[in-house]
Design goal:
60 residues; alpha+beta; Complement Module, domain 1; three-stranded antiparallel beta sheet; Hemin_uptake_protein_HemP; Hemin uptake protein HemP
């Protein structure tokens, strides 16, 4: 007979964060002083725009 245990919530959270680690970019690096920038992704163009309230909007 084999006993199996479920990972604790803490272990599961640590596993997910390690697996989903990605490079973080500052929005200032992307926008380079502009209000918006165009991003080409999978054959489509997207617009990343900073609002007056400091939020980001991504539109296709």
């Amino acid at each position: 007979m084999t006993l199996t245990t479920k990972p604790s919530l803490e272990q599961a959270g640590n596993d997910r964060s390690a697996a989903s680690t990605s490079a973080a970019l500052e929005s200032l690096e992307l926008l380079k002083g502009q209000k918006s920038v165009t991003i080409h992704h999978n054959g489509s163009l997207y617009r990343l725009q900073a609002t007056k309230l400091g939020k980001l909007i991504l539109t296709k």
